Amino acid sequence: MNQAYEQLQPYLERAMAYQAALILFEWDNETLAPAQAVSYTAKMQGAVSAAYQELITGAEVVKLLEQCDQEGDLSETELAVIREVKEEVEQLACIPPEEYREYKELVSESGGIWAKARENRDFEAFAPTLKKIIDFQKKFASYRAKAGQKLYDVMLDGYEKGFTIERLDQFFDKLKQELVPFLQQIRESEADLRDDFLTGDYPEEQQQELAKMLSEYVGFDFSKGVLAVSAHPFTTALHNHDARITTHYSERLSSALFSVIHEAGHGIYEQGIGDELTQTFLGQGASMGMHESQSRFFENMIGRNEAFWVPLYEKLQALFPRQLAAIDRETYVAAINKVTPGLIRIEADELSYSLHILIRYELEKQLIEEELAVEELPGLWADKYEEYLGIRPEHAAEGVLQDIHWSQGFFGYFPSYALGSAFAAQMYADMKKKMDFEGLLRLGDISTIRECLRTHIHRHGKIKESGRLLREMTGEDFNPDYYLNYLKEKYGQLYGIL
């Protein structure tokens, strides 16, 4: 038995308690906290963050980590815990405590500033705060960077290891070359898919009933989770017996419907992490890209699949008889898959979604590596939307202010969304070889599909990196061709342009 590892446990338990407190602050801020609470609560979040940094980078923890290596005799799980704690120490020890606390208070408060600016369509009101966040991000990345390492590569590494600027440039260039002209083909096609019935008077009470029914149907366990409402749908978790998801409701039925399936996918991942890993540094998804692969898999490969609605569509009609009674299932499925390039990422159709991510990736690179001035963002954002999607935002709320991520300091996060979609397509192709995927959906058997994902992905938490998980599940390294082939085959058939 490794005595140092045993002595390390009380410190790690305290660290997890601090993390849980910060998660609860975030959850409350996004769901129930009154608007005027934000700046006051931010100070408490800063204090808890400072205490966490002090604990995890303290001399005793560092000493015990060294002794763990010297003593040896560690299991695979214990070695992985040590690996993750060491990485956390390395990430935080280089940042002066006063700077870390100031930054944490800033990003705790900045979400409210962003939300007000978005409501008023006023980018200039948010720009000074965004500048401060970017300055902190670049400063912290410079502390962490190894010799010759680019600052944006440091940021990317925090979300998806191994996917550097060089590798992501290749990935996104391929998406751009293939999807931009394909999208234009679809826009020029003569197919006319009706979707007007998806927008209208859909009472929130019935939408709430649908949200709970769908999340349970795909496997979200409400004895270990909750569903709430927030302006920007998200998922968080304290541990595998407390996963929390949110959605939003609007006059567009498909908006809430697919956001809840998407977030349920995240929640199912969290609930599927092994009990031996939860409440440790391994008790989370392998990476942001892998986490996104699960939400995209549930949303698109399952939820937008025609077979998924065979046992469900009559139940949907029963909830909304006035709106859907005259709409047959085939028309409905075509409508939820209709390609309509829009300005809002979270409302994007499946085909154009990754082009939204491409735009954010290109702008982040310019902000971090090319000294792009924050004031230039709205104009460049609009130009890129016009170039790639053929549409142009009229104001900042439907443009550069639509996402909360930058206000939270999440630079390097956005590429994970496109990678997750590509990971999901590769898993889907593999699963179709090994099971009658659509046949299971028609029978209403989501459990067989879900348990396959749990076996290969969910239960491992963060023991294994995403590349290894994908390779062990599919027998191949990451290959974006699966994603491109999936999109072209699906939408080529739907629009008759194969």
Encode the helix/strand succession as letters.
HHHHHHHHHEEEHHHHHHHHHHHH
User: What's the tally of helices?
Assistant: 21
CATH topology type of the largest domain: Neurolysin, domain 3
Spatial order of the strands in the main sheet? 1-3-2
Shape: globular
Oligomer status: single chain
Unreliable stretches covering 5 or more consecutive residues: none
**Tell me, what is the CATH class of the largest domain?**
Mainly Alpha
Which range does the strand content fall in? under 5%
The N- and C-terminal alpha carbons lie at a distance of 61 Å
The CATH level-2 architecture of the largest domain is identified as Orthogonal Bundle
What is the secondary structure topology, with strand pairs?
Elements: H1 3-31, H2 38-56, H3 59-71, H4 76-93, H5 97-119, H6 123-144, H7 151-157, H8 165-188, H9 204-218, E1 225-229, E2 235-239, E3 242-247, H10 253-272, H11 288-302, H12 313-319, H13 321-324, H14 329-336, H15 353-369, H16 377-389, H17 415-434, H18 437-442, H19 447-456, H20 466-474, H21 481-495
Parallel strand pairs: 1-3
Antiparallel strand pairs: 2-3
Verbal overview:
The protein has 498 residues and is mainly α. The protein folds into two domains: 142 residues, no CATH class; 331 residues, Neurolysin, domain 3 (Orthogonal Bundle), CATH 1.10.1370. 63% of the residues lie in helices and 3% in strands. A three-stranded mixed sheet has the order 1-3-2, sandwiched between helices. It is globular, with a radius of gyration of 23 Å. It starts with a helix and ends with a helix. 42% of the residues are buried. The mean pLDDT is 96.
